[in-house]
Amino acid sequence: MNKIKSAFKNGKAFIPFITCGDPDLETTEQAVYAMKEAGADLIELGIPFSDPTAEGPVIQGANVRALAGGVTTDKIFDMVQRIRANTQIPMVFMTYANVVFSYGSERFIKRAAELGMDGIILPDLPYEEKEEFDPLCRQYEVALISLIAPTSEERIAMIAKEASGFVYCVSSLGVTGVRSGITTNVGAMVKKVKEVRDIPCAIGFGISTPEQAKTMAQYADGVIVGSAIVKLCAQHGKKCVPYVKEYVKSMKDAIRS
Amino acid sequence: MSKGRFGVHGGQYMPETLMNAVIELEEAYEHYKNDPEFNAELTDLLNNYAGRPSRLYYADHMTKDLGGAKIYLKREDLNHTGAHKINNVLGQVLLAKKMGKTRVIAETGAGQHGVATATAAALMGLECEVFMGKEDTERQALNVYRMRLLGAKVHAVTSGTATLKDAVSEAMREWTSRVADTHYVIGSTMGPHPFPTIVRDFQAVISKEMKQQCLAAEGKLPDAVLACVGGGSNAIGSFYHFIEDKEVQLIGCEAAGRGVNTAETAATIATGREGIFHGMKSYFCQDEFGQIAPVYSISAGLDYPGIGPEHAMLYDTGRAQYVPVTDDEAVDAFEYLSRIEGIIPAIESAHAISYAMKLAPTMAKEQVIIITISGRGDKDCAAIARYRGEDIHE
Q1: CA angle B281-B284-B289, nearest 5°?
Q2: A196 neighbors A183 (Cβ within 8 angstroms)
């Protein structure tokens, strides 16, 4: 049913994130193709939100620019439709609960499924509230991705037991963004998941260099990178695609070896 | 349905990173709220430090001038630090201390909650950092100095619209980055469970006193209780002990800004719809795609795009009504109360006074209205003077 599993079949998975519509949706679309060619295994498409409380300054800035440029959920759906005419690479949305809820939860999830989206990540939806969307996600076969954090501890088993797609392991406290070092024992977090279930685990938050990616890939099935890519989009604007491609290739190469 | 629901509203829509912190808080609160020692300490602080009980003042001139219902003012403006915010803050900071936290963070709009938190932190020896929208640090520069004077660090928030909602977002971000030793003192009856309940309980002292004071003065319950509503903490505190007394009308006064038919408004019930934001399901001002609206009000304390989940439920069930009041009407009421009773109310509270000015003349002389004066207006004088075209700066 779901393409997410296949993303973890090609060795360690590299999962880039991009904010849709920064600088514009045409560039985002081209960046998706470029990231796929560069070796990305699964792509996270960020639907911008006015008040992204889990994001650091880099992705906050991208959200502001994308919304100021007139990006809407419907325009992003249209872009996904164009992308799906060209590639079947596994893709998930990353956004906030209100973007889905306000669109009409069923309307949103049904549309995402029809367009061939494979999952949704909502950082403001913890285990306790997943009933809000999970039954619909199961009905339409869109994986609602669960997150675990360094503070989750004994919650990990409960979360892992009911997780879909893959488990998003948040590497550090705080918000998204580049960090010089990751001090959490992510290996122990992943181990707690695997004790309960054999479900892919991908580590995100704070990873930007090939060295970090390589280290993190030892502990998990995949590595997620957001801010470092969004930064390239901010720096190079409409000319960002080759830079993003080169970066994704360097990251995939680092975790492949 | 998950915990902390008020009808369909409320819940805990929070990053996983904070879930153990809110669970720990809930457990601690469930323990201490029934702990006689905790309650004795809190009562002592409320009475001997904050100056409770606050007065229920009969506004004779206003009553005569409006020619209808008898008007009483619940004087939360006379509390230490000049607003109702201290009620909640003393409770939460005491709770944080009992939980072994050494640091508190808070958001603030007008600065009242920030000043109250900085005050309680100074009193109880905790480190304090306050997040305030940059625009608000300019509107309320004196309060920024007050917080610094009290030993707090003030962060001017530049993200988003640089107002209250962004201060809340930034405080939440800060809490996810340092959660073990830090308690987030949310200032209103909002956010994820258990905050709406904790804040309501600590503010419910307002209606508890009000009820006793009104019975003592009038021998009956009031016919209407009015309070301004942003997130809604002074309003829920003013309503709470009357919710079961169906004959008491409960009226929340929202900030309509330049009018509910303009984009420059913060009237959530009048213009918002159901959404999920800042940890809760409730009503929010938002566009068709769920993007939170950049709201506006002359009052920094009501300049918030949402309303607490318990208010959302009181609205759904019809138990309380919510009315919009514009900037112009609030400023008129600010000046009116100053002149007629010699009481300068906070511009937030002036929203409730404004609606009382419309309501009282329609009521009989033996009927009773209580208006909560949630804070004093000294902080607003320069801004209102400028609104009236005077060149005054703090």
Answers
A1: 95
A2: no
- Please give the residue that has the higher pLDDT: either B383 or A243: A243
| Nearest residue on chain B to A52, alpha-carbon basis | B169
First-to-final CA distance of chain B: 49
How far apart (Å, rounded) are the C-alpha atoms in residues B164 and B302?
9
Average of per-residue pLDDT values in chain B: 96
Task: Answer whether the bond into residue B194 is a cis peptide, omega within 30°.
Answer: yes
In chain A the beta strands, taken as DSSP E runs, fall at: 13-19, 43-46, 91-94, 119-121, 143-148, 167-170, 201-204, 222-225
Contacts of B12 in chain A (CB under 8 A): 126, 128-129
Residue positions counted in chain B: 394
Q: What residues contact A64, with CB distance under 8 A and at least 6 apart?
A: A48, B160
Strand duo B368-373 + B224-229: pairing: parallel
Min Cα distance B183 → chain A (Å) is 15
- Decide: A40 and A251 in contact? Cβ < 8 Å: no
Instruction: Tell which residue, B227, B253, B256, has the closest CA to residue B242.
Output: B227
* Yes or no, beta carbons of A175 and B173 under 8 Å apart: yes
Q: Please, is B55 exposed, middle or buried when counting C-beta atoms within 10 Å of its C-beta (0-12, 13-18, 19+)?
A: middle
Task: Give the whole-number percent of chain B exceeding pLDDT 70.
Answer: 99
Q: Model pTM?
A: 0.96
CA distance B215 to chain A (A): 43
DSSP state string for B172-214: HHHHHHS-SSEEE---SS-SSTTHHHHHHHHHTHHHHHHHHHH
At the top level of CATH, which class does the domain A2-256 belong to?
Answer: alpha beta
In this model, does residue B51 exceed pLDDT 60? yes
**Tokens 């609602």 -> residue:** A144
| Predicted ipTM > 0.90 | yes
User: Which residue of chain B comes nearest to A98, CA vs CA?
Assistant: B276
